[in-house]
Amino acid sequence: MVYKMRVLRTDRSVTQLALIANFAFLTIIYTVSTPTVWVATSETVGIVNFSGLFTQGCVILLTACEQIILLHLSHDRETAWRKARPRLACLAVVLGVMAVLFSAATSVHENPNDFAVTKAQFYPAYLIVYLTAYSVSQLDVGIMCWRYTKIAPSPWLRRGLYCIALTLPFVFIYSGSRYADVVAGQFGVSGHAWEPVAQWAVAIAAIIKTIGWTLPDWGPHLSRIWRRVDDRRAYRELAPVHVALTTQVPGPVLQLDATADLPTRLYRRMVEIRDAQWSLRPWMHPSVTISAAQLCDEVGLTGNDRAAVIEAAVLKAAVHTKVQGGSPSLSALGEMSRFGGLA
User: Fold this and answer.
1) Neighbours of 294 (CB within 10 A)
2) Which helix (H) or strand (E) segment is 8 a member of?
3) How far apart are CA 261 and CA 275, in angstroms?
């Protein structure tokens, strides 16, 4: 959340504000859910188990923030608010109904560890309203994520949205566990037996969602790291080819400055390999191409793999011919003359 607040220096859009509010509510939920803070918060307000209403109200507000984010990502400002108003109005009604049902319930002692289970057993109406609003809203969020992935402007935003959408199974596991609490309570049975399932499901969903919402920010850094790793690998793998070719055709080689970065060195190495390859064309014989193609057909190579093998075979044969002092191919010389010689 602190990291995202820094973004407000340059971007105070509704999307960024709602995203920061989303993380703020998530932080509040898990902070207040700590038993010590739970009890202290309720005692400060003077209402037993007020922390339960407060945290579940924050969950509803968090869901509202998610809807605002997705609507503003996929629509212009006017359309987004038009679509957001009925959603926000419904959630506001839900919060009001939750407050009324909570006030109608009586609690003797604090339940920081099993608030939902206790409410399900003795005051099911409150939990049903909360669960229904939560489940329907999260389904709406998941559907919007799947739809927006089709038009997301960046790969990492698309991946983040996929992560958020993939939390739906965990959301439904949590909601199903809580509905099971309500049903069990009507038969005088507690839902403590499957409480760990509900807790783990909601925790996993929260973690994956946090990753999904932040992935567009730190994902590109992973791409840059991977690009550096891939460039280093390519630079190392091209070294033997580069040495073999430029030993025979040293002309294309340029001495780079010691401060040249890896992308520059890799680009230069590829250019020198291609220039040397072009210079070796007089020693490339069509018979090698035909033989290499036949071997590829025998082993079933196709596409880029087939083309790479044939090119490597022809190039290797050309280097070998030149090293052995072989004469250039007249047909190759004739073909090169049509393209301006070795230049």
Assistant:
1) 9
2) none
3) 21
Residue 165 CB partners (closer than 8 Å, separation 6+): 142, 145, 146, 149
pLDDT of 246 strictly over 50: yes
Token couple for 188 = 């005088």
Alpha carbon distance, N-terminus to C-terminus of the chain: 58
Q: Are 279 and 314 in contact (CB under 8 A)?
A: no
> Residue 256 CB: number of other CB atoms within 10 A?
12
pLDDT band at 338 (very low <50, low <70, confident <90, very high): very low
| Rg over CA atoms, the chain | 33
Using CA atoms of 293, 295, 296, 298 in order, give the dihedral in degrees to the nearest 10: 130
Q: 47-51, 189-193, 262-266, 295-299: which has the minimum mean pLDDT?
A: 189-193
Which residues, 6 or more positions from 76, have their beta carbon under 8 angstroms from its beta carbon? none
The DSSP-derived string for 213-282 is: HHHHHHHHHHHHHHHHHHHHHHHHHHHHHHHHHHHH--TT-----TT--HHHHHHHHHHHHHHHHHHTGG
Q: Six-digit token pair at 292?
A: 């290499």
pLDDT at residue 258, as a whole number = 83
| Mean per-residue pLDDT, 208-221 | 92
